[in-house]
Design goal:
Strands 1-9-8 form a 3-stranded antiparallel sheet, with no helix packed on it. A 3-stranded antiparallel sheet has the order 2-3-4, with no helix packed on it. Strands 5-6-7 form a 3-stranded antiparallel sheet, with no helix packed on it. The chain has 3 helices and 9 strands. The protein is of the alpha+beta class and 200 residues long.
Length: 200
């Protein structure tokens, strides 16, 4: 009788040990599978808002910041550049950006926030076929665009032209103005691209 109890105890121990080892094996196999379905840190970062220090962007200069795998241009326009924007309307396909994607607070000729009208924040991708335009911000012959060029951006792929608010000129292959991403200013020098603050 004592042998039967010993065998029974041994059997319970072996079944318990086998169950624990089996469970550990299942966890070891399933964990990487479940983790593979979760977004990576890189994928999370790709969609996350990006904070940018704009204090180093001198007047008349531009910097590029990547957001969601796209180049975002931050242009510090001079008073002369801003004054030119109102003169461009007759040349533009959509001067009021009625058909183009932009936050509500950018629905103005500057296509910028009221707090920082000099700063243009726009996605640097042509709305025709997705090429990246080049900056031709200087007016006239200095840009290589001709004496009547008001300053802006030129897409070398198919010739689309945009002014310094990212608004497309008439009779261009690009159908829309450059896209303005959601953004907000955290301070006078810190910009958050990808998140728009609630406005009254």
């Amino acid at each position: 009788m004592s042998e039967t109890l010993a065998d029974h105890g041994r059997r319970k121990f072996l079944v318990g040990a086998t169950t624990v080892v089996g469970a550990a094996g299942v966890a070891a196999v399933v964990t990487p599978f479940i983790l593979s379905m979760l977004p990576s840190a890189r994928a999370k970062a790709a969609g996350a808002p990006v904070e940018v220090d704009v204090s180093k962007v001198e007047p008349g200069m531009m910097m590029t910041q990547e957001w969601r795998g796209q180049p975002v241009w931050i242009v510090n326009r001079t008073p002369e550049m801003l004054a030119q924007l109102g003169k461009n309307n007759a040349l533009l396909s959509d001067p009021d950006s009625a058909s183009s994607e932009q936050p509500e607070f950018c629905k103005n000729p500057n296509r910028s926030s009221a707090e920082h009208p000099n700063l243009l924040v726009t996605v640097g991708i042509c709305t025709h076929l997705g090429c990246s335009p080049v900056d031709k911000m200087k007016k006239g012959e200095a840009s290589g665009m001709g004496s009547d060029w008001p300053g802006g951006f030129f897409c070398p792929c198919h010739g689309s032209k945009y002014d310094l608010s990212g608004r497309v000129f008439k009779s261009m292959p690009a159908p829309l103005n450059l896209r303005i991403p959601p953004y907000t200013f955290l301070s006078e020098t810190r910009l958050l691209i990808g998140e728009e603050k609630k406005r009254a």
